Amino acid sequence: MSFITLVLFYLFFGFVQGFTEPIPISSSGHLVIFQDLFNLKMESLTFEVLVNFASLLAVLLIYRNDIIRLATNGLSFVFSKAKKTPAMKQDFMFIVYLIIATIPAGIIGILFEDLIAETFAGAKMVGITLIITGIALFIIRNLKGQKSDRELSLKDAIIVGLSQSVALIPGISRSGATIVAAMLLGMKQETALRFSFLLYIPVSLGTFLLKVSDIFDAGSSALVIPYTVAFITALIATYFSLRWFMNIMERGNLIYFSIYCLVVGTFAFLIL
User: Fold this and answer.
1) Phi, psi (deg, nearest 5) at residue 224
2) From residue 189, how far is each of 140, 142, 248 by CA, in Å?
3) What would the pLDDT profile of 143-199 be if each residue is shown by its tens digit?
4) Among 35, 97, 112, 142, which residue's beta carbon has the most beta carbons within 10 A?
5) Are 175 and 23 within 8 A, CB to CB?
6) Within 13 Å, how many C-alpha atoms sit on residue 265's CB side?
7) Is residue 171 packed enough to be buried (19+ CB in 10 Å), middle (13-18) or exposed (0-12)?
């Protein structure tokens, strides 16, 4: 493979991962499908660690105001000697629920990630899980919950956290699983979306910190430019994809993602 071809290869997969990460169609599943479709293989997890970190930066950028508000009010609720306002308590509890929801995927990922990857490997298995994702999205396509940020409960956090752990299976979208669970629990679309993507931050950051050494261990000077191209591409693609998905959620057009997952999942299962 020539150097130009290598760069284009990483640019393409950086775009695929970045664009599909925030929307409910499974970025990991699409990487499996495209690798199988083009008979290509990533050499290690280094690429996924890198582009997932790029997606994390895009999410941090989009939700920066929410993060600053939560951090400010949460810290004020804990450490300020002044009177605690309802907003401080609400944001502090939102942080608590995010922490609780992070635990299931963290524990299951550490204990069973390799087993899950081996058990559900291959494009046909991804096809099945994409079909499951499509059915789940179809079920919630018309739901419009009433539960806002301040009305979340411990039960909501645990159930959404467990749904995120299911997304360790390739083809099960992380954003899709958490948003489906959140909306079935009666959350407003805006609340479901915010909780889902703020929940993505600790999980993604934890994965990066645990596996960042792999980047240096597998580091090859020949891959510096291709990896950089993939990183920048994934960052930009995630940013615009998430903005687009936020607009889609506002209009309640999840049916399109449902149809897409059903079509691609059927193709992967029958053809690949």
Assistant:
1) -60, -50
2) 11, 11, 10
3) 988 999 989 999 999 999 999 999 989 889 999 999 999 999 999 999 999 999 999
4) 97
5) yes
6) 24
7) buried
